[in-house]
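Support case: user asked for a sample of complex input and structure output to validate their parser. Sending the pair below.
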Amino acid sequence: MPDKPKLIALFTDFGIDSPYLGQMHAVLAASGVKQTVIQLIADAPRFAPCPSAYLLSAIARDMPGGTMFICVVDPGVGSDRRPIIVRDSDQWFVGPDNGLLSQVARRSGKAEIEEIVWRPEKMSNSFHGRDLFAPVAAAICSQEYKSGPGIQADTLAGAEWPDDLAEIIYVDAFGNAITGIRSSSINNNRVLDLCGTPVKHARTFSDAPSGAVFWYENSMGLVEIAVNHGSASQLLDVDIGSQIDILG
Amino acid sequence: MPDKPKLIALFTDFGIDSPYLGQMHAVLAASGVKQTVIQLIADAPRFAPCPSAYLLSAIARDMPGGTMFICVVDPGVGSDRRPIIVRDSDQWFVGPDNGLLSQVARRSGKAEIEEIVWRPEKMSNSFHGRDLFAPVAAAICSQEYKSGPGIQADTLAGAEWPDDLAEIIYVDAFGNAITGIRSSSINNNRVLDLCGTPVKHARTFSDAPSGAVFWYENSMGLVEIAVNHGSASQLLDVDIGSQIDILG
Amino acid sequence: MPDKPKLIALFTDFGIDSPYLGQMHAVLAASGVKQTVIQLIADAPRFAPCPSAYLLSAIARDMPGGTMFICVVDPGVGSDRRPIIVRDSDQWFVGPDNGLLSQVARRSGKAEIEEIVWRPEKMSNSFHGRDLFAPVAAAICSQEYKSGPGIQADTLAGAEWPDDLAEIIYVDAFGNAITGIRSSSINNNRVLDLCGTPVKHARTFSDAPSGAVFWYENSMGLVEIAVNHGSASQLLDVDIGSQIDILG
């Protein structure tokens, strides 16, 4: 298990515009962080820790060992929700205890979780990504971070959420509709029902006729509903939160 | 005061899409710049040096000492507007003399300002960010830049603009409407009038009922009009340039 | 001719949102790549290798020597289209053989082209940018890449495409409509016809009246149709694929 992170990845719902991502990068750079900082995703489901949690868990699966994720989907910023750190094997996750880190904490079964009790001298009420989470990440990188009290996994927000979420959790820039269902959890012969449309499996885009709707195992290991050379989201009029039924 | 910048930050209205930001990054990298280059903001008010000037000044306040800002909101590119450098204590600002740097020059009261008279061998008429400002920034980083003639602050474009701008100067990705008014300049008991809607103060999002409009001191120290779990910009139908009245 | 790349640039149609760019950055960082990685463009014409090829060629012209471009506009991912490397003087291009690299291969006249026959242990069917092209790029950077069989330029997809493409190939964030015509190929006194609108030459934005349509040599050396302080794309209702006629 590495002593310190090799890579930092930002997972947020800030939107790719706005100065907020740059301000977080600036804090990390000014803190002397030498690790590469990757802008991983800025359009996680907004104000929505639940679908974001399943997306984070799927993306993290294939991210390199030694990655520290700074995770900010934080509609309760400024309230008394706890800031936490989850360490799962060789990855770190820093963020709010609002369910966002529940799935990475749970899938390993042996994650170490702690509360962040450190506070900066000056902290805005609305931007803990810059004022709390980024400085904590920098301190972990420089091995100057002092651990806080441990937290039991079953007390985390979102601890009661299901293993797989049978909903659309993300729509990518191509209009592909990503679900919270791991494809390893269902057989390829299963048909999905997405808002009344039956959807069958195909291996990948180039195996489906142009314009046809299909589901496949995407590059994160999730069930994704797609249209070859088209937008599933537009064609089926679905978005984050749309329900999936797994038919016989 | 540091001899050379520790960090470079790009402040532009280019839009986050398009190849223009990448082309500026490439010039900096190819020039041997070792400093971290941060994509700070690419959606500054387009073609609008005035609101951009107030946004820049507010963001710069909390950016690290040693930051050099390359600032390109430059509708007059190709005309005879002067390119300039403003040095204010431990920050540098490189950009056009069209008002964009007026507020950072003025708030310190002791900024050093100079004209950029150096020109590259080859310069496009439409992209001075890549062809002029980035190379100048790289030369400052390598301490090979030769100073140009000094400029008096009161001759800068925008020197006559007010201390605070009672307008919306930026709408972020959440729909929060940021004004050019520093919150330190008004009391928390003041009510704002935004296009006919009275807006009262709250400490932060989590203190306001869901859907309620309020103003608060944002993380840049500006008065920001927001809606908890909603978009102030959409709800009030306001955008950059919308006027604010400060009521009694 | 440099032995190895000094700079890596990502040229994709992924959209600036979504986690896909970050996942590619992560593979490069985890592979020990020391070169600066530049997010060059993520909104290349989607699913459209032809206009993308002309855009890539124009952008590459002014990018630094030693740049390696990872090029992913790849609607046929998962099919049997070949992955290739084009080396043209001091630049590298890694991507699919679907026409995307045809113009960079052809304009030099002496590019070296080879097929990528290496495959990773595990490769998704839908994301070769992360699973194939980024690891190949990393191996080239560390000089551990073993060359594949050579390819003749005239067998590449797109080898028969014209030298200049008289169409809109890109619309930037300002609404400027970029064509696939190199401005060096036509005289400044030529009038263009864009969907019925005659368009004359101007030197640059500040030479044209506000609101007037003109064409000029843009910063990539291409003919670009623009409106001073406005959006040519909106005003003329044109988009990628709109045809240009060069009048007498």
